[in-house]
Design brief:
Number of strands: 5
Shape: globular
CATH class: Alpha Beta
Strand order of the largest sheet: 2-1-3-4-5
Low-confidence stretches: none
Number of helices: 5
Length: 133
């Protein structure tokens, strides 16, 4: 198992980014690597970090401003070669269809509920590890 996993967190709201960090802890499950975070507050920063490579999973805030996580997700799925899996934070469970439209691999509602979020993130990290093997 790799030593660390890099998770990009995109939200213009520092409180949302903090919720993600706190819900994840050092690792979201015992069978996945320790998580390191790359935090982005703008769409340009997300694209810059993805261009560098090394991102294992993206967590995108559907309510981010000026560009929401759903639009950001759809853009990176179109533009980034071998785009990492995306976990989308959505405002309401009824928005799940928008997460599907954006091509996100998973979605959870915000505010972040730690057990639900950690489970979804761990699942994406496991899938990523299987694809890399």
């Amino acid at each position: 198992m790799q030593a660390t996993a890099t998770v990009l967190v995109y939200s213009d709201d520092s409180n949302t980014r903090e919720q993600v960090r706190l819900a994840t802890g050092r690792r979201p499950a015992p069978d996945v690597p320790v998580v390191e975070f790359v935090e982005c507050a703008t769409p340009a920063a997300v694209l810059k970090e993805l261009d560098k490579g090394g991102i294992d999973v993206c967590v995108l805030d559907g309510e981010a401003v000026p560009m929401g996580g759903m639009g950001m997700c759809r853009q990176i799925k179109d533009e980034v070669f071998q785009c990492p899996p995306v976990l989308l934070l959505i405002a309401r469970p009824q928005d799940a269809w928008l997460a599907t439209w954006s091509r996100a691999e998973a979605a959870v509602t915000a505010p972040v509920e730690p057990v639900e979020f950690a489970g979804a993130l761990a699942s994406l990290l496991r899938e990523k590890r299987l694809q890399s093997a």
